[in-house]
Amino acid sequence: MKEQLEAIRKAALESIAATAEESELEALRVKYLGKKGELTAVLKQMGKLSPEERPVMGQMANDVRAALEQAMEARSAVLAEKAMEARLEAETLDVTIPGKKPALGHKHPMYTVLDEIKEIFINMGFEIMEGPEIEQEDYNFTKLNTPADHPAREWSDTFYLTEDSRVLLRTQTSPMQIRAMETCGVPIRMISPGRVYRKDEVDATHSPMFHQIEGLVVDKGVTMADLKGTLNAVIREIYGPDTVTRFRPHHFPFTEPSCEMDIQCHKCGGKGCPTCKGEGWIEVLGAGMVHPKVLRNCGVDPDVYSGFAFGFGLERLAMGQFKISDLRLIFENDQRFLEQF
Ligand code: PHE
Fold first, then answer.
1. Pocket lining: 146 vs ligand 1, CB cutoff 6 Å
2. Cβ 140 under 6 angstroms from ligand 1
3. Calpha distance 233→313 (Å, rounded)
4. Which of 201, 235, 310, 337 is the most exposed place for a label (fewest CB within 10 A)?
C-alpha cells in the first residue's frame, strides 16, 4: 500500500505540474481525490490492513492528500496569473494611434435665423407658441373670416386629409392666432413659428412645405402705429439699423386694414437690380389689424380690445440673410451646402 500511495503522489504531482489550464487541474482533482478517485480507492482498502499498520498508512494517505491539494492550489494560482498575463498581452491598447473623430453636425442655417428672430421677440416680451400642422378647416379658414367660397380654400391650393374638407395640412400659421386667444385669452403677445403646406410645384422660390412665423398682439388701445413701430424695430434688428421700410396696402380676410411690408433692396439701395427683380423693394411680410370678426370668433370684445397680426416667411429671410439664391438648397440637406454655414 505504501508503494501505491507513493506512486500516486509522484504521478499526480507530475501531472499537476504539467497542466496548462484550470480545467485540466479540475480533471486531476476528480481523477485522484474524487469519490471514485485513485487515492480514495486506496483508502477503501484500509480495512484489510492490520491494526498496527492502519494509523501509519492513514497518516501517509492524509499526507498525500494534503500534498496534492497544496500542489493543486499553487498550480491554480500560477495558471490564473498566466491567464491574466495572456489577456493583458492580447488586449494591449496602443494609445498613440490617432482616434476616430465622430462627424458632428451643426444647426441648419434656417434655424440659426429662426433662433435669432425668437431672441428678438422674447426680448420684446413675446411668448413662443407652437401649434398643430394637421389643422381643422375651422381654424385654418372659417374662424379667420375666410368664407367657404374663398379661393384660398381651393382643392388645387390645399392638402385636404378628408373628403369633406374638414381636416387639412395648415396653409398658414394664422390658425395659431385663434388657438392662442382661445387658450390664453387676452391681452396676449405671442409668436408661433412652424411648417405650412400648399400645393405648389417645387422651383427656385416655391416649395409645397415651407416655414412661417406668425405674430399676434392684442390688448386695449393697440393701433396701427404699434404694428409699424414693432415691425420696424424687428426688421432693423435683423437687417441693420439703417434699413428703410415701407408699408403697402394689401388684403387678408382676417386683418383690416391689411398691409405688406417691404424693405428697400440693400443690394442696390432702391434703384432696382437682379436681387430685387428690378423693383428696388423686397417684400418681407404680411400684416394688419386683427379683424373685429376674428376677435369676436375668439370671444374677445372688439369694442374693448384691438390688436395686430403678422406673418413672415422664414425661408425668404434666411435666403436674404445668407444670400442663398435657390430655395431648394435649404431642404435638400446636401452637406456640401450646409457645411458652409
Ligand atoms: N397668413 C398670411 C399668409 O400666409 C400672412 C399674414 C399673417 C397676414 C398675419 C396678416 C396677418 O400670407
1. no
2. no
3. 18
4. 201
Find out whether the beta carbon of 177 lies less than 6 Å from any atom of ligand 1: no
Please write the tens of the pLDDT for every residue from 214-253.
999 999 999 999 999 999 999 999 989 999 999 999 999 9
Q: Could you tell me which of 184, 209, 56 has the C-alpha nearest to residue 127?
A: 184
The domain locations on the chain are 2-90, 109-338
Residue whose CA is at the smallest distance from ligand 1 atom 4: 172
Task: Determine if ligand 1 sits within 6 Å of the CB of residue 252.
Answer: yes
Residue 194 CB less than 6 A away from ligand 1:
no
Encode pLDDT of 78-136 as tens digits. 888 988 988 888 888 888 989 899 988 899 999 999 999 999 999 999 999 999 999 99
Q: Give a three-class secondary structure readout of 178-205.
A: HHHHHHHCCCEEEEEEEEEECCCCCECC
